[in-house]
Amino acid sequence: MASLKKPSPCRWGDLDYKTTQLNFKMVQLKQVSLRLKSIKNIQKITKTMKMVSASKFTRAERELQAARPFGYGPRKFYESSQLVKGDVDKKSGDKAAKDSPPSEPVKDKPDEKDAKALKRLYIAVTSDRGLCGGVHSGVARRIRRDLTARKAEGPSSKVVCIGDKSRAMLRRIFAPNMLVSVKDIGRIAPVFADASMIAAAIAESGYIYEFGEIYYNKYFTPVKYELTTIPVFDKVRMESAPNMNAFDDVEDDQLECYAEWTVAALLYYAMKESAASEQSARMAAMDNATKNAAEMIRKLTLLFNRTRQAVITRELIEIISGAAALK
Amino acid sequence: MAMALRSLLRNSTKRLQVRSFAAEAPKEGEMALTFAAGNKVFYNKQVVKQIDVPSLSGAFGILPKHVPTLAVLRPGVVTVLENDGKTNKIFVSSGTITVNDDSSVQVLAEEAHPLENLDRGAAQEALSKAQSEFNSAANEKAKAEAAIALEVAEEIVKAASA
């Protein structure tokens, strides 16, 4: 017992020091155990969310297969009528965005001033739900960048926000540009009626746009999605497409119907793509969160056991040294 | 032996693949139909002989090398004559038809169902409901909406009883 080191003297008496040390350890023990409990609960939640989004994801992916032709049809028409030059889809690689503004309508190339004053419509396809990685913020960030880059157009461009997330991220900076925002997206799988409702709201807003773009996350595989834009046009644009004279004469009101319906179809397609990407991203995010929680639990358990052991050891030492002093 | 078997297997799968690709890719002068609805994909770039569609400007048939055109579907029956001579009748509610210059056709419908899935009794019920809604519609917009529902219901009844 002689080898026992005496704690170095401190301001409070020897006994005081010991009790504070002990108390401190006990408090730490309590804190660790509380923390451990809350992290275990968080892990349960993330695990459940992962399973929920996994089942939602399989459904979204299945429905996406059915919705793909809705994107393919208009795309094919854009190509054959040469409404859009080159690739209809524009990927959002940083390089591409810097090099060229995404898919300019062909007509506006000659007059620079005209192109600047273009009335644009930005449609952000997101949802109300978060906790899915950078799915929504990617869309919002891209629109913010494009809008700031084309500041000259000022308030003539409008933003349509589908889902609360993009609205929350864009409304502060672009409050005067807000045209329509749609809530209640993402709770249940989007159906065609949702898309046509949004398309009707855009049409009813009375804003005449010259060039619209839908920003959405295109789904490739469960681990890969890519921010993509697809252009939308109204009747006037479609009429003046370069290769439109190859097409049979179409009555005016029929073309209008066609254009409006195409907007709805594209919105439906974009919403389906984005729903699938969102669920897959949430799955990945929740999987990571669960893993992180497991890691934290492992570390905290270790800390807890060590602290507990330390407290026990200290108590033992005190008892034994007390007994030795009585001898 | 195992090697020989494996190579045989590989060759056969390769051949199979080649064959399926050849069947999928539409040749010159053939018409690839994409027919999809919100609920189901009926044809995906499949080569067919003829398609009859009901459009706002009247029903018309599409054969290969049809002049490129755009049209809007009205409620009615789309008839697809497949390459093996089978006809497939599908009821559509609304949508668009696009005939492109490469003679590919895209029919996109909001809702579409094969004719045999339509139930006449239910259609009659929907028709009478639409009629009463049309009669009790308060404003112009509600009236127009009810008129659309009425038209669809009428066409379903017509298609189901045909």
Automatic annotation (TrEMBL), chain A:
Q: Where in the cell is it found?
A: Membrane
What SUPFAM superfamilies does its record include?
A: ATP synthase (F1-ATPase), gamma subunit
Start-end of Basic and acidic residues biased regions: 86-98
Say where the protein is mainly found: membrane
Q: Which InterPro entries match?
A: ATP_synth_F1_ATPase_gsu, ATP_synth_F1_gsu, ATP_synth_F1_gsu_CS
Stated membrane topology is: Peripheral membrane protein
Identify the stretch(es) annotated as Disordered: 83-112
- Alphabetical list of Pfam families matching this protein: ATP-synt
- Keyword annotations from UniProtKB, A to Z: ATP synthesis, CF(1), Hydrogen ion transport, Ion transport, Membrane, Transport
Spell out where the chain crosses the membrane.
none
Q: Family assignment?
A: Belongs to the ATPase gamma chain family.
Subunit-structure text: F-type ATPases have 2 components, CF(1) - the catalytic core - and CF(0) - the membrane proton channel. CF(1) and CF(0) have multiple subunits.
User: What is the official name of this protein in its record?
Assistant: ATP synthase subunit gamma
TrEMBL record, chain B:
- The answer to whether keyword Ion transport applies is yes
* Compartmental location: Mitochondrion inner membrane
Under the heading InterPro entries, the entry gives: ATP_F1_dsu/esu_C_sf (IPR036794), ATP_synth_F1_dsu/esu (IPR001469), ATP_synth_F1_dsu/esu_N (IPR020546), ATPsynth_dsu/esu_N (IPR036771)
Q: Which residues form the ATP synthase F1 complex delta/epsilon subunit N-terminal domain?
A: 33-112
One Pfam family it belongs to: ATP-synt_DE_N
> Which keywords appear in this protein's UniProt record, sorted alphabetically?
ATP synthesis, CF(1), Hydrogen ion transport, Ion transport, Membrane, Mitochondrion, Mitochondrion inner membrane, Transit peptide, Transport
The record's section on SUPFAM superfamilies has: Epsilon subunit of F1F0-ATP synthase C-terminal domain, Epsilon subunit of F1F0-ATP synthase N-terminal domain
Checking PANTHER family in the record gives:
ATP SYNTHASE DELTA/EPSILON CHAIN, ATP SYNTHASE SUBUNIT DELTA, MITOCHONDRIAL
UniProt similarity note: Belongs to the ATPase epsilon chain family.
Q: What is this protein called?
A: ATP synthase F1 complex delta/epsilon subunit N-terminal domain-containing protein
Which source organism? Answer: Chilo suppressalis (Asiatic rice borer moth)
